[in-house]
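Let us work through a complete example step by step.
Step 1: write down the sequence.
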Amino acid sequence: MKKFNTQHWFLPLLLICVLIVAGCGSNTTSAETQTQDNLSADPTVPPSSPTLTQPMANSPQLNGKATVVMTVNGSPITIEIDGTNAPITAGNFVDLVNKGVYDGLAFHRVVRDPQPFVVQGGDPQSKDPKFPSARLGTGGFIDPATSKERMIPLEIKPKGAEQPIYSKTLESARIKAAPVLSHTRGAVAMARSQFPDSASSQFYFALADLAFLDGSYAVFGYVTDGMDVVDQIKQGDRIESAKVTQGLENLKN
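Step 2: predict the structure and record it as tokens.
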């Protein structure tokens, strides 16, 4: 998943420690242990806290919904992006798609054993086929306007709330309500490090219902067609193209 670095590319709080760290003794179930490595890409990189400056003012926002069609292995994956319930997270993704950032990027982490978990990609470093595969999962989108990595706040809207909660997991915010956008099979969400406001460009598809990630990672859309294509993605497969086919007018920069 992402890196154990100052970045964000670790998806779920507990990614199967048996897959990443040998001898990670635990009494938790396989589903629970799947959050333990945060979907981070490189556990050898020491973490440091990133600084997020005025995330609301500087982040693109999606006011409404949009449709993105991503082509992998010659087949389309249709994703409905929900800017109604996750405007900043959705706006960031749609903006990056519209900029062509995802075209040619590889899926650097695919976890299906011991049970279906996630397919993760979106590291801009993966566009270079010579970039060391062991280091993938440590990169994010460098905004050419600032020459800095664009990071967005953790954004989760609890059921019954008028606005999302920012920069906190629902647990740390002491909110017991479930999120509006949950980790059901086909959910699309942002990968990040242990720091809430560290998501950038890396995202993941949920290969199964992953309720234990709800409230900790920001879901921003769902696969509406082509989940069979997602199920066939292998590590190293590339996004041939990603296009906004509907709703681009809802993107506000």
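Step 3: interpret the result. Residues 1-38, 40-55 have pLDDT under 50 and may be disordered.
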